[in-house]
């Protein structure tokens, strides 16, 4: 059964066109000119409970707008949205209790207070039971190894520590859905890995549905299994990462063999083309039924370069700009 459903959703922003010059400013006071900009056009999608979904798209494609619609900050121009059997609404406390949001660019932790103090405020806002609060807090702090830094004012912490505490803040009330918008911006690779494992673990242990928006392919590849690609206000792809790479029809994986001598280690081949240059042989073309027989003793290294998610996205976004 679907946990998040968007049916025929469109969204347009209304922007006020301010002209320059005194005369135009005075005219604006009498009659304002608005322009409508359609950002989402007839979007339909479905996400199951417990899924880990990545939302990808170039800058300005409408990812944050989708998140604002799913959390009830914005209302659709047309179409319907259901999240956990609710129409998203920021005035509905029961709905808000079901979601947790982490915005990489915005903080819900008070800069001057230790995170422990903000957590107590959140406990009271969300009316979290003492036992649940203590259980979740100690579990999450220990998973991230943040037991000590939680008592240090947030402004003194590293970006990685702050982001991890932001994720804990979003999970303290036990949401069913965790939305992460660019969570790893500026984080080093060790902190990124810690965040990936934490999110995967929370999903595995508590079946929290994950919706991740990120330009970092490492985040998408480490966390998500279901990919949505947004382009020019439309969902242009809805499926697995593997299917997306396959659909992009990139060149075949390149196979390179490095050998100990100038002599190629290929002793037999069928339906294959290759070239040998000094101590390296590259398979330049092959079919599904191609075979090669290699003299293993002569091989120093055998490398297969598969097309990556990043390559596939680059091809898609590049075509759009052309
Ligand atoms: N409040 C607003 N008023 C008018 N236009 C807006 C408003 N907010 C966003 N837009 C426009 O809507 C489009 C989509 O913006 P949105 O922030 O959803 O994109 P995004 O995919 O999240 O981009 P990014 O990857 O850069 O964060 C952009 O062209 C943006 O200029």
Automatic annotation (TrEMBL):
Which top-rank group of organisms is this from? Answer: Bacteria
Domain ABC transporter residue range list: 24-257
Going by the UniProt record, its keywords in alphabetical order are: ATP-binding, Nucleotide-binding, Transport
**Is the keyword Chaperone in the record?**
no
Query: InterPro entries this protein is in?
Result: AAA+_ATPase, ABC_transporter-like_ATP-bd, ABC_transporter-like_CS, ABC_transporter_ATP-binding, P-loop_NTPase
Kindly name one Pfam family recorded for this protein. ABC_tran
Q: Which GO terms describe its molecular function?
A: ATP binding
What's the protein here called? ATP-binding cassette domain-containing protein
Q: Which organism is it from?
A: Holzapfeliella saturejae
């Amino acid at each position: 059964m679907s946990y998040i459903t968007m049916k025929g959703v469109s969204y347009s922003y209304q922007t006020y066109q301010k002209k320059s010059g005194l005369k135009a400013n005075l005219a604006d006071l009498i009659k304002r000119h608005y322009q409508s900009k359609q950002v989402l056009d007839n979007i339909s999608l479905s996400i199951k409970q417990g899924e880990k979904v990545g939302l990808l798209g170039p800058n300005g494609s409408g990812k944050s707008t989708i998140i604002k619609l799913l959390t009830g900050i914005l209302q659709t121009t047309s179409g319907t949205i259901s999240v956990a059997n609710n129409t998203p609404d920021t005035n509905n406390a029961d709905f808000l209790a079901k979601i947790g949001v982490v915005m990489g660019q915005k903080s819900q932790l008070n800069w001057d207070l230790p995170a422990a103090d903000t957590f107590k405020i959140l406990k009271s806002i969300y009316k979290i039971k003492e036992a649940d609060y203590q259980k979740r807090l100690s579990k999450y702090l220990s998973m991230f190894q943040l037991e000590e830094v939680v008592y240090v004012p947030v402004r003194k912490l590293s970006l990685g520590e702050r982001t991890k505490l932001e994720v804990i803040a979003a999970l303290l009330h036990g949401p069913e859905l965790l939305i992460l918008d660019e969570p790893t911006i500026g984080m080093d690779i060790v902190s990124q890995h810690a965040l990936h494992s934490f999110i995967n673990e929370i999903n595995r242990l508590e079946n929290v549905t994950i919706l991740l928006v990120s330009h970092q392919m490492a985040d998408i590849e480490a966390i998500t299994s279901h990919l949505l690609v947004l382009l020019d206000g439309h969902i242009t792809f809805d499926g697995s990462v593997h299917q997306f790479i396959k659909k992009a029809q990139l060149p075949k994986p390149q196979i390179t063999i490095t050998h100990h001598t100038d002599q190629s280690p290929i002793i037999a081949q069928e339906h294959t083309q290759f070239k040998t240059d000094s101590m390296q042989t590259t398979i330049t073309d092959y079919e599904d039924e191609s075979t090669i027989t290699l003299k293993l003793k002569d091989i120093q290294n055998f490398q297969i370069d598969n097309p990556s998610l990043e390559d596939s996205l680059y091809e898609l976004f590049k075509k759009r700009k052309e």
